[in-house]
Structure formats: C-alpha cells, structure tokens
From TrEMBL:
Alphabetical keyword list: Coiled coil, Signal
Source organism superkingdom: Bacteria
Gene3D superfamilies, alphabetized: 1.20.1270.390
Upper taxonomic lineage: Bacteria, Pseudomonadati, Pseudomonadota, Gammaproteobacteria, Lysobacterales
Domain DUF4398 residues, every copy: 33-110
UniProt cross-references to Pfam families, sorted A to Z: DUF4398
Descriptive protein name: DUF4398 domain-containing protein
Coiled coil regions in record: 58-121
Extent of the signal sequence: 1-27
Length: 128
C-alpha cells in the first residue's frame, strides 16, 4: 500500500517538530552539537581499529574530547567547547582514515602476493 500525501505530510510535520525541539536544546547549550559530533567521530574511529593503526592521533582525539567535555561543565570555559570538540572530531576522523588506509594497504599487499603466486604457478605449469 502506497502512503498517501496526507500521511507523508504528517510524518514530515513530526520530523520538523522534532528537529525544532532538539535544535532549541542545542541553542541553549553552545557547543553541544559539536560535542556530540566529536563523540560520534571517536566512536567511528574506535570501530575502525584506529587505536591499532593510528594510536597517537586517536589518543590526541580522545584527549581533546575529554577537554571539551570538561570545558562544557565549566561556565568560564564553555565558549571553548566548539573549538575543542571540532579538533577532537577532526583528529578522530583522521585516525579513522589512517586506519582504513592501513587496512586497505594490507589487503592490497595480500592480493598482490596472491597474483604473483598465481603468475608463478602459470609460468611453471603447476596447479593443473
């Protein structure tokens, strides 16, 4: 059954209302959106095993995220939260990218070794 335009309109209205309410919460807390984005970036980097392939960059991202979280709890430092959180997110994204690159390079080396082995087998007539 296809949704009608009226049903779609109600859904869109609900989404707009939700966004309006959540943006009001972020407007009252400067840096909340950036802090959330930084937390998500660190989580993505964790899932990409960035600790293994980009440990220094990942440690820096975590440190900056902690600084941003501490600043969010201190009225005098709250204005620094967006900058600290953006730095944490950027470092976490870099760590994730470095990790993904390392994994891709390892996979490429493995495939090249497999191709070389197959070429040797073809050249020597093995594998029949």
């Amino acid at each position: 059954m296809k949704p009608s335009f009226a049903q779609l309109r109600r859904f869109l209205y609900a989404v707009v209302c939700s966004l309006a309410l959540s943006s009001g919460a972020f407007a009252q807390d400067p840096g909340a959106a950036e802090l959330l984005a930084a937390q998500q970036a660190v989580e993505r980097a964790d899932r990409a095993d960035a600790d293994q392939y980009a440990a220094d960059t990942m440690a820096m991202a975590r440190q900056q995220l902690e600084q941003a979280q501490r600043a969010a709890g201190d009225r005098r430092e709250r204005k620094q939260v967006p900058v600290l959180a953006l730095r944490a997110a950027a470092d976490a994204d870099l760590a994730r990218a470095l990790s993904e690159e390392a994994v891709a390079q390892a996979q490429l080396a493995q495939r090249r070794a497999e191709v070389q082995q197959l070429q040797q087998q073809l050249a020597t007539g093995e594998g029949h």
